[in-house]
Amino acid sequence: MSSRITRRRFHKEVAIMGATAAALRGAGVSGAEPVAQMPKIRLGSLEVSRLFIGSNPFFGFSHGNPQASADEMKAYYTPERIMATLDAAADQGITAVWTPCYEHWIELWLKYKERGGRLDAWIAQPDRSPMEKDILAAVRNGAKAIAIQGCHIDDQVTKGRWDVVRGWLELIQSHKLPAGMATHRATTHLEAEERGMPTDFYHQTVYRPDDYVPGGLEESLAVVERLEKPVVAYKVLGAGRIAPADAFPALLKRLRRKDGICVGVFPRKRDEIAENAALMRRLTAPER
Asked: CA 43 to CA 115: how far, in whole Å?
């Protein structure tokens, strides 16, 4: 089954957006009045909340998540539900979503903003070749920062092609947007700093997606502690294998106030957005 939302399906479901609130109430996504603000960080010139909404569940990228299969995620996350999820996140003080530059996502994002969607910022994650095409699509369609996806960074670094990575980052910055890069490895960002890569921030996996073992967590956090630029941690729940109540306190003890956390949600049974936001606010209360 394709992970892509077809254009026909998109238009069909956008046509029934009036049912969004009722549908999402039944699915465990809150529609409450906005609550207290999240603590903020800066990705270059962009101010954002420390907690980001990740997008893997939107596209069925389950990575073996015990909560749901890829097909279950894709069936749940219709365009209607994605838009309502973004609004629910905004109501909890979250200001940004981190997602690739797929055509169906861009169409959804533009429609969402046209309809007055409350979430402010799309952090684009180009993940296809030619990379320059994805970067420019993000620039044209309202991304407020861009971070190159980790597999593409890791591939170029393995080949010793730091010049390619530099070119991508310089292209982003030439359009006056904050530029970042991701990795699935522990030491890539340190090497980027040593080589003077033109980055404004980093996107660091804390659990390696090949095994999700605690050793990978410790290696990643030891590196994050050495980076002076903002770092947004991702894969922080090990693709649903670790509860936020266990993961967030341990991570926030190691991250600095300049750093953030990116977490996807699958609120089919409970309001994970509100739960994660409340946990983040409680654990970072002195910052506000």
From this structure: 26
The CA radius of gyration of the chain, in Å to the nearest whole number, is 18
- Own/partner long-range contacts of 215-220 (Cβ < 8 Å, ≥24 apart): 216/186, 219/186, 220/186
Q: Is the peptide bond before 130 cis (omega within 30 degrees of 0)?
A: yes
| SS3 call for 47 | strand
CB contact at 8 A, 261 and 236? yes
Answer yes or no: are the C-beta atoms of 181 and 127 closer than 8 Å: no
Q: What's the pLDDT tens digit per position in 191-226?
A: 999 999 999 999 999 876 655 556 678 889 999 999
- Structure tokens given for 207: 């659990």
Q: Look-up: residue for tokens 């070119």?
A: 167
Asked whether the whole model's pTM tops 0.90, one would answer: no
Q: Which pLDDT tens digit goes with each residue over 63-97?
A: 555 577 788 989 899 999 999 999 999 999 999 99
Is-contact 115 17, C-beta < 8 A? yes
- Judged against a pLDDT cut of 60, whether residue 7 lies above it is answered with no
In angstroms, rounded to a whole number, what is the distance separating the alpha carbons of residues 257 and 202?
14
| CATH-assigned architecture of domain 40-287 | Alpha-Beta Barrel (3.20)
Say if strands 46-49 and 40-43 run parallel, antiparallel, or are unpaired.
antiparallel
Structure tokens at 65: 């998540």
Instruction: Give the list of residues 6+ apart from residue 230 with CB closer than 8 angstroms, or none.
Output: 41, 42, 43, 200, 201, 202, 258, 259, 260
